[in-house]
DNA sequence: GCTGGCACTCACATGCGAAGAGTGCCAAGA
DNA sequence: TCTTGGCACTCTTCGCATGTGAGTGCCAGC
């Protein structure tokens, strides 16, 4: 177990390194923080911290920089979440309040997060699986062609074409539309399958094939979790990554384009509260020099999706966590209102 | 006017520079291209080309690199469009054929373009203004709250909430829905305003306010050109920009995030055919060291939107133009089918 | 357990010289 | 008039040696 002072030293190292981007030495540390001890003592502590793997030297005769393990300790034990100031909170609310639809909410959230944290922001669209059905609409585009439109309580709209096995009259369509909505409107996605199970039985024999086709398309749409989309912004902030970023920036950009990777990453964070993943804790190789701070957000008490930021492991964790948490909270409010 | 041989020299310089990314000298030129003259002659030609502003030296005693003006001449007079090979064409078609909906078509197109050109791909969603209405759907969410869903012939769906001035019964809503669709279905957006102008007159006095509100929301949705969205991909290719890219990449990323800039850029290219804008021909400062190759695409003969790539001025113009043209063509086909 | 002192180690900047690529110019030849 | 070979000149780049400074590790003393 590390002594209290050594933890202080680690905290100081993290703070200084995050601020200066340069390895921090014992002398500079004692000058900037009043630890009450001499550089020599700090050197001993640093040596111990290095033995434990919390900090490392880029090369001999250079200062120390925190390791992933060091950041982890910092985040878990040494740093709190820095709350937003009142003006900041007001700015967030104002900015989000102007949104006109779901796309706009997500777009604004991304911009906001990127600006606040000066990092790459990632916002997942409210997930289908946990939301409820607001309305299902069926439109006859041709005698044997129906467009299925699904509207969720979060304002999301999904549409699908359905090619029917047989022509389907407008009366039947209206019937199906009415029956379908009376059963599923307001219900959670998970419950839909069994609610519509026996629906084909209510129709004439000739229409049953079509009804089944429509229903299975609907269920497909509901299940298709991989349809989860996300929006990314603030990639220009990647250029502030560090001096050596030509090498680091590329795999990060690639990973960001592979939305699958990000979705998996967000999905892995089972904790509905804030999750911080640091450097090599992230399975994806291209993101090994980044940290991801994510949190769930939702319209009610329940989280329907995640948002977060991707930045260098050398990031201002308290500030970033504060911004992420605040934004998630306000987005939740906005969604609840609409 | 430049002599034939000098044009050859310019072409050779562009080709070599694009290939090697290094200033090209007279000796290397004569070695790689059989121009039939000696390096000394080429030097004279180069000197003339430099006087005319087609090429420049980064510094004395270095080779020459093409200027924006040089690339312009190259694109206009010296280079054709390199057609895709048969296997490439097949790959394009296969890749795009798997798309399930409009979002997917756009997403696949972006990926494809980025891969083919190894540059940043930009695809505009099929624009609303030039398309036709397939269907307008109205849903009562609450007594005085209606959701308006607009479906276009390109498969795009837009939805809006409408807060009605007065409660609006389901019969009235059904009436409005029917009348609205009979008038506007299949019509071009531009024609919609006058088609629905007198629609409120057909309703009871108490409903007219609501009808007007719904209609004006519809018109707003149609007009809102700034709702034009686009998808961007292949930003990781920016890292191949050049050795000095730390400076160049940042403004480009910023410009790419400002979708407004890109939309303006695409919109400016009035030529429905291919447009190439090179370096300082682009008004936006951050893109001054890039070139943009764009082309319209559409489901019928008419272009409904643009797509293109953003890359360094030092790009393979013939190849890029070939890829852009081919992709646009196939996307048009896909859209026409659906 | 803390502290000051001291030797040691590297990275980094600086300066210098050699090498190399490329140009510009000139005089001769077609 | 255009082309060509030759030659001097200009810069960049690279390698190398050197000096400097930040920072460490260790040790003896308090």
Automatic annotation (TrEMBL), chains A, B:
InterPro entries on file: GAF-like_dom_sf (IPR029016), HrcA (IPR002571), HrcA_C (IPR021153), WH-like_DNA-bd_sf (IPR036388), WH_DNA-bd_sf (IPR036390), WHTH_transcript_rep_HrcA_IDD (IPR023120)
MF GO annotations: DNA binding
Entry annotated with the keyword Transcription: yes
GO biological process: negative regulation of DNA-templated transcription
Heat-inducible transcription repressor HrcA C-terminal domain residues: 103-321
Pfam family name, one: HrcA
Keywords attached to this entry: Repressor, Stress response, Transcription, Transcription regulation
The keyword Repressor appears for this protein: yes
Role played: Negative regulator of class I heat shock genes (grpE-dnaK-dnaJ and groELS operons). Prevents heat-shock induction of these operons.
Matches recorded under HAMAP family: HrcA (MF_00081)
Membership in a protein family: Belongs to the HrcA family.
Name this polypeptide is given: Heat-inducible transcription repressor HrcA
Annotated source species: Streptomyces griseofuscus
